[in-house]
Design a protein that fits this description.
Elements: E1 5-8, E2 33-39, E3 44-45, H1 57-70, E4 78-81, E5 87-91, H2 93-99, E6 106-111, H3 117-130, H4 136-150, H5 154-163, H6 170-179, H7 184-191, H8 197-201, H9 208-221, H10 225-234, H11 248-276, H12 285-288, H13 316-320, H14 324-328, H15 331-343, H16 348-361, H17 367-381, H18 391-405
Parallel strand pairs: 3-5, 4-6
Antiparallel strand pairs: 1-2, 2-6, 4-5
Helix pairs in contact: 1-2, 3-4, 4-6, 15-16
Amino acid sequence: MDGRTERQLPAPAAEYQAPTSMPAFTMCSVPRVNKEIEIEPGALELDPENVRSEPESSVVEGLREALRTSGDYINAPVVYKTDAGSYRVHHGSTRVIAARGVVDRLRVRVTDPPPTPRTKVLSQLSENLLQSGLGPVDIGNALRQLRDSGNMSIGQLVGALKASGVIRSRAWVLRHLALTELDEDVQRAVARGELQVTNALQLRRFAPEEQRAWCRRIIEEGIGLQSLEGLLSHEGGANTDDPFLESPEQRVPRMFEIEAEMRERLSDVAETNAQARPGHGIRPREQRDGPVRTRWEFLPALLQIQEKPGRKGRSKLASLKRVAWYESATELQRRLVEELLLLGTDTPQEAISLVEEALGEQEAAWEPIMVTLHGLRILAENPERLARNSALATFLKLRMRRVLGTLV
């Protein structure tokens, strides 16, 4: 089989399908997985048009360390077969790069090829946004690809993101698209974290040569936004009317004013149409909209921690795959159970029981509980983002201690 080990997965009917009414951060586009294979990492073809321009070296090293410890990823990369017969990475390019030179064979999941380039970009963009793992310039370039490939308006981009589970505003989309209009050297400085996005957007009105000069000066002199605005204003180049650059205190009231004005104009138009065409006016909301239900679900955390052996030193993850439940479980159920085993649950049976109970409780769960679970998942995946001795870490610890104290 050309050096690959294949394992057929359960029928697609068992796969997890996220409801379209789920909130932004809980809706996950799960590819249809046809089978799992084990293959040499070097034999996997990276997507040359992946929305992530290049992986962070610290993330790659962290993944390599996890692989050296466990030998496998909990969340295997997703690949698809190309017309040439090779396997190309759809999700998980960073994981594949990290695996090269560390393991001889890597477990991957094979899915159907993306039907269109736009579908592929949207899928990669939404997954990275849901995991908070994409830089602002890469986001802007992905949005630009979507816009140009389908001649999409800003509103259509917002709608496409929402359909993929990512709710973002028009201003957010415009702000990231604006980054792609900057000189490439300036974009690279933003991508490296040397130049703040807000400072970079101040340079949009300059020619490329001036942008590069200002970029070097901002970095070398450590110029902040307020000082930069003063310098640019003195030279006649400040973007004082740019809505992307307003402070929240300035922007929020103005957005409410704009929204109120738009509502008034739409109401006037609707009333005019109703008078001109009796019986064809816009019906009241209660007559045209059904009840709105919000369904919350929680996703598994992608943890980079060493597995704690079970009884008699056996691997609990390996034991899980021998349980009959594993073959019929959905992808979401499997990942949640694997997370519990990594976090210290004693046996696969105990983890399975806990996951099934939790999935049964989520429908009627209080909304703040689901929001908290989401936040803790993000923190568990990115523990380095919380400074150990910070005041926020202390608040978090004290509040969690209070909450956990009520469960004793």
